[in-house]
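Subgroup meeting minutes
Present: P.N., E.W., G.H.
Scribe: E.W.

1. P.N. recapped why we're keeping a running log of single-chain structure predictions: easier to compare across weeks, and new members can see raw inputs and outputs side by side.
2. G.H. added today's entry (179 aa).
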Amino acid sequence: MKPLLAALLVWLPAQAPAQVAEPDEYRMDHYRGPVPSTLFGATVVGPEEAHRLWEDGGTAFIDVLPQAPKPANLPPGTIWRDKPRLSIPGATWLPNVGYGAIAEVTATYFRDGLAEATARDPAHPVLFFCLEDCWMSWNAAKRALEYGYETVYWLPEGTDGWALWDYPTERILPREPQP
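Output recorded in log:
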């Protein structure tokens, strides 16, 4: 019995979720993995609070899930189908803006998308999400704070957590034109 109890005590701490410290800078690689539980300057929300904000209708929802580009050298006649993105209804999809380093054309795309979603009002609440354990949304929310947005929410559970609560989803398309 004692060996079993000792093995259980060794195994249990290994099963606890890892605590990730909030970095000072953007996450630059390994974008899918445990995320911090905080984002300085932002309000971290779970699916229930995000759903309440969504129902209230006063917050812009920004999906930052990356989108794979169409391969450049597809043979003629090849049919290309983007993977459909099921997201929070009414969200604006700004793909590829959550990388740690982004080109100026992507930063402009991000700023323009945020301005459109918030009626050019940096005081308008905005909520960022991606998937669960996705640093893209953390990076994008951090970047929005640096752009001067005052009320920034971050949903670390993303659409995975949203769907787990059986909240509605719909297929969305990226904001065009993309860089």
